[in-house]
Amino acid sequence: MKYARLIWVNLIRNKRRTILTVLSVAVALFLFTTLRSVVTALNAVSEVGSESRLVVSSAMGITFPLPQSYYERLRAQEGVESVTWANWFGGVYVDPSNFFAQFAIDAETYLPMYPEVVVPEDQRAAFLAERTGALVGSGLMERFGWSLGQSVTLQGTIIPGDWEFTIRAVYDPNPASYGDQLFFFHYDHLYEGSNQQMSPGWYALQLADPNSAPEVINRIDAIYENSTAPTKTETERAFQTGFVTMWGNIGFLVQAIGTAVFFAILLVSANTMMMAGRERISENAVLKTLGFPDGLLFVFVLIEAVTITLLGGALGVFGAKAMFGPGNPMTMFIPGFEVHTSTVTLGLTIAIVLGLVSGFVPAFQAMRLSVVQSLRRVA
Amino acid sequence: MALVEISNLRKVYHRDSQEIPVFDAVDLELDSGGFLALMGPSGSGKTTLLNILAGLDSPTSGSVMVDGQEITGMKPKQLAAWRARHVGFIFQFYNLLPVLTAFQNVELPLLLTKLSKKDRRDHVMTAMGVVGLTDRADHFPRQLSGGQEQRVGIARAIVSDPTMILADEPTGDLDAKSADEILTLLQRLNEEFGKTIMMVTHDAHAAERAHATTHLDKGVLHR
Amino acid sequence: MKIPILYNLRSLKERPVSTLTTAAGMALVVAVFVAMMALSNGFRAAMVRTGSSDNAFVLRRGATAEMYSGIGRNGVSIVAGMPFVARDANNLPLISPEIFVVLGLRRLNGGLANVVVRGVSARVMQVRDNIEITEGRAFRPGAAEILIGEAIIDRFPNTAVGDTFKFGGRDWTVVGHFSAGGSSFESEVWGENELLMPVFRGEVFQSISFRMTDPGSFDGVKQTLEDDRRLFVEVFRENEFYASQSELLGQILNFIAVFIAGVMAVGAVFGAINTMYAAVSSRAPEIAVLLTLGFKPGNVLSSFLAEAVLIAFLGGLAGCIITLPINGLVTSTTNWNSFSEVAFAFRVTPNVLVNGMIFAVVMGLIGGFFPARKAAKQPVVVALREG
């Protein structure tokens, strides 16, 4: 494009100013991308989960177990294809900072219900055959450098003591959003090891027809409403979402900060464009004298502004994406933390809008510049 | 018919609620190939007259015809296009873009045309040849002397072969030697290349180089 | 600094748009900084005030949180009989064996929260002496009555005095609200331990809190109880235990505050640098005049630095002012360590505001330094020619 040089020389005219502004935008968009990824990651957690599975937990709260006897009755329910249960173990592996989720499951009923947990057939058999066996996610294997057949000891918190397991199977999650850092072992082992004090933390139900969920939910809760252990039944998705909401007003907080960041950088970028504009009054007058139309000058300034913000934006957005690649430190707090394509797109769009808004006034001023007045100033 | 016909031109400035008349009932003609010097004391409005002729300013009333076209009624967008085609402007303070080389400065008006890059290059080098600065094509304005800068300004003014060249105190900022060179160059453009030139100046010696001189004083044009 | 500050003030007025946009950018950065610091502050304050250094806190050994702990009645009797447990006027031990569970409740503004229900001794207000009934009365021993902490009364349904709270298959009457010196206890529901015990986990307490006769002898107390073979416990100073429970979350909040504000500051500083460089360039002739008059380069540097700081100061002030309204705003999150809801208020303290202003001034200094240096090093002749 023949005008490219004009726009380019204006950008490099004051390299320091251009670079600082680009970096400013980069930094702001890096922050924005990170914050937004926190929100998307938290939301993603609530999207993992099948629509045809229900979770039955104690109405008093997730920390209260349910009677073992509920199993038969739940299985007999109309519309329920299968039932399984699990417990949160909450053990410590060497140090509390090595956090990962551990579940005691009834593998024979659990694994068929969760096809997301993909295990090679031979390993599945090995796991099922051994009471102290463990089924571990591929992500955990990589994180701690474990190998198949390795012995892993967890310090129990709910049930104290050292619990030793042997890794007999490794799973790959499908889809990946299910998470590859889960640790499963046998409920029976927990039951024995706790002197038979344990009972299921929650039950999971597979529905024949997802649309029957509301009806089944009401039915089950009604059965146990007046018992000693009333239930709260919900879809798996609702169950997951519950955990996300425990974070509190995070979503709002993040948005508020994001807005503040946007405006702060808008000001920086607009200031830059205005300073540049002021310096170029006489030059713009000359261009107009030569016959450059007003509209063209308007476009020049806007292109200049958008180039700066888009460059900075790309730097910030892709920088964040590179920094939070697979297995980054943030995944410890929020599983699956990554920068989605939608966030990248949003970030770049914001960068463009930033350029347009901050360049608007100087562009408008350039367009409306009175040649006569400006030349008068110089001469 | 003359190339430039200005009839009954009147310009009045409005500041707050005051009316400040600049000139009134100005008639002026310039033939093709002519070289006119416009003189007058400071503040007489000669630059304003030049600006109106260049399509940079509009008169309060009156008519300006260039090559058979009436320009006083044109919209800014039309004027811009008209200016690109018909006017080559030379400024007192050269007004080169400091971020562009001499070559690139001269090339500017051509960017508004549909010429190819190669054609543009040819035109620029030709213009620079006329002003004698081909060896300085890649220099930046800050690397040039005042006289050289003005020559680049002239090259820029002629590169698209405009209908007329308008010069506003072209030697006002130059030392005697450089001023002389510039005026010689302008004369050459006029005599050898047949360029129509109108030059505003307050220097009588400069005015001598033109074919004719006219004076603008207290808003009235004298021969 | 010899060059009068009036020069700087006037110069700022000369370029109002530039000055205001730079100051506004800084204002936003300072506002975010102050808000985040207030958040982190509020959380830390709540946790730090929880518990007393005069009290010892006993958990089952190996329990990383109250929820996982279990101490039988036997253990409680043994501890209560120890000589280092303080006694009240009636020679009753100042001890509160406690039940700790979390109920899953829906917040009024949406979302799930694990609210702590603590079964305390009827004499808990002597064991922990910053507890005050702010409305209604304390629960009567033997009655299905509960108290709701100040921090959560507006956040959950059925928490007004006289309301009925349902859990554990029983109806509980809210008979009062209590405050606890701004500590995390204010995010809890309290009832009598003996009454709550059978509702939840059976014949086990989760913790024992008691007043020490001599808080200075804590180490001895700890040793004695932990060595006792009849018990299987770990002992902490009560306040230190709660502080450690919130450490991770506190660190996370702090990190977030510093990270976000730091990143924004970098952006704002770049903007300030640009503004100041532009100012220095456009005022080259003025600077030359100052130098000609006899002011030293050092004076010029200080002057421009002061100008940058002035802008930053204005921005900082504005930022602090716009953040003031959030003081006292209550928010809550889950302390994953204890798996319980903790509500706390943004606390915009003078300390936080001062830090915000310092932050602003530092931004101004960093942003103004290089441009100021350039101004000072300017050769006089160049400046005059440019003018």
Number of strands of chain A: 10
What is the residue-averaged pLDDT of chain A? 87
Structural class of chain A: alpha+beta
**Unreliable segments of chain B (pLDDT under 50, ≥5 consecutive)?**
none
The unreliable regions of chain A are none
DSSP strand (E) fraction of chain B? 25-35%
Radius of gyration of chain A: 30 Å
| Largest sheet features of chain B | 6 strands, mixed
Biggest interface between chains:
A-C, 54 and 54 residues
Oligomer: heterotrimer
Overall geometry of chain B comes to globular
H and E order of chain B? EEEHEEHEHHHEHEHEE
Which class do the helix and strand fractions of chain B yield? alpha/beta
Q: DSSP strand (E) fraction of chain A?
A: 15-25%
Estimate the helix proportion of chain A, in percent: 40-55%
Please give the largest β-sheet of chain A. 10 strands, mixed
Task: List its salient traits.
heterotrimer; A: alpha+beta; ten-stranded mixed sheet; 14 helices; 10 strands; 55% helix; B: 223 residues; alpha/beta; 27% strand
How would you explain this protein's 3D organization?
The complex is a heterotrimer of chains A (379), B (223) and C (387). With 379 residues, chain A is of the alpha+beta class. In chain A, 55% of the residues lie in helices and 16% in strands. Chain A has helices at residues 4-13, 15-47, 70-75, 107-113, 121-129, 138-144, 187-193, 213-224, 236-245, 250-279, 281-290, 294-323, 341-368, 371-378; strands at residues 53-58, 80-88, 101-105, 117-118, 133-137, 151-156, 161-173, 182-186, 202-207, 231-235. In chain A, strands 1, 2, 3, 4, 5, 6, 7, 8, 9 and 10 form a 10-stranded mixed beta sheet that branches. In chain A, a hairpin with a 4-residue loop joins strand 6 (151-156) and strand 7. The radius of gyration of chain A is 30 Å and the shape is elongated. With 223 residues, chain B is of the alpha/beta class. Chain B contains 7 helices and 10 strands. Chain B has helices at residues 46-53, 76-86, 102-107, 117-131, 146-158, 176-191, 204-208, and strands spanning 4-15, 18-30, 35-39, 61-66, 69-70, 87-90, 164-168, 196-200, 212-217, 220-222. Chain C contains 11 helices and 14 strands. The longest helix of chain C is centred in the last third of the chain and has 45 residues, at 238-282. The two termini of chain C are 26 Å apart. At the A-C interface, helix 2, helix 9 and helix 10 of A face helix 2, strand 3, strand 4, helix 7 and strand 13 of C.
